[in-house]
Amino acid sequence: MSVKVTRSTPRLDKARALVAGINGSWRVEPECTEDSRNKLAWLARGGRDFMAPTPEMTRTAVRFVDAELSFEPGASPAKLMAAAAAGIKAEVLLRFTGQKGNLRPLTAQYLARKIARGLDRRIGIATRALVTDLANSPWRARR
Fold this sequence. Notes:
Blueprint: H1 10-25, E1 27-30, H2 34-45, H3 55-71, H4 77-98, H5 108-117, H6 129-136, E2 139-142
Antiparallel strand pairs: 1-2
């Protein structure tokens, strides 16, 4: 008697294919204020790109899409893209609050100025206005 093992993961395969399509042809962006977009661009120019795609961001998006598929196996692509956007939002917010990722450190002079003003020492967080705006803004996937 032989045992036949079939390895099929249709939900996970669907999630990975969808997220793979995000890389290059799709962009996930927050619908935040102009001031927040300017701050994100300024941080990116200074070597602190919180929106830069990473393997961890992709894995988080796949987890969110997989969770959506577990609740609704026949979910539409739009709904799955919304789930991927929610995963990317969570990952970006963790970069701010947990200081995840490869961010260029603050200079000693700038850090001293932040401390003297009573501001948060973490990168990208001074008044928490940017993080709050990103957390409260809807995030959308666009082609």
